[in-house]
Specification:
39% helix; binds S-adenosylmethionine; seven-stranded mixed β-sheet; 7 helices; O-methyltransferase activity; alpha/beta; transferase; Rossmann fold; Methyltransferase
Length: 189
Amino acid sequence: MQTARALAHELGLPCVSPGAGSVLSLLAAAGSAKAVVEIGTGTGVSGIWLLRGMRPDGVLTTIDVEHEHQRIARRIFLEAGYASSRTRIISGRSLDVLPRLADGAYDLIFVDADTTEFEACTAAALRLLRPGGILIVNGAHANGRISDPSARDVDTLTIRETVKAIRESEDWIPAIIPSGAGLLTAVKR
Ligand SMILES: C[S@@+](CC[C@H](N)C(=O)[O-])C[C@H]1O[C@@H](n2cnc3c(N)ncnc32)[C@H](O)[C@@H]1O
């Protein structure tokens, strides 16, 4: 069996590091997560970490625009021992799919897709999470550029704006966990 990580590597697709993955499991377990949304399925690396921490009856709703990535992830989840009833795999662009999900129905939301949509995804997360629910955004370090004031590319600017908006908002209790690519985490008040 090829691992999800090896398959991601073959496709040239970034995936969470083991350090960041263990934080995902930890936060899913600490939040007794039963309903989780993942934006950016990839080959299923982060999905497996989330499922590991979730309640045994929990369902991972995972969104990706690429059918091929999700075809691989579906197989990976089954091979890892997670029945198909534990995953709801939705194909489509996140900003088209998120409006169809129910308000206040989710315990944890993990954002790991198009960086330029981070702000829109975090706004959607505020609507989708229950009070006390957890938001995690992967890539908060912007590949090391976050603290470089001369870095003005669109990805870095969007990440900076997303971190600032969450830090300054009364709606969130935020923290940055420096694992892997940097995890911007926040609990909804
Ligand atoms: C960094 S990879 C996700 C890796 C995965 N979370 C992991 O750690 O295994 C980003 C994924 O987001 C998907 N993606 C990119 N833009 C998207 C969008 N606008 N909506 C949904 N998925 C998108 C890509 O197809 C890709 O599979």
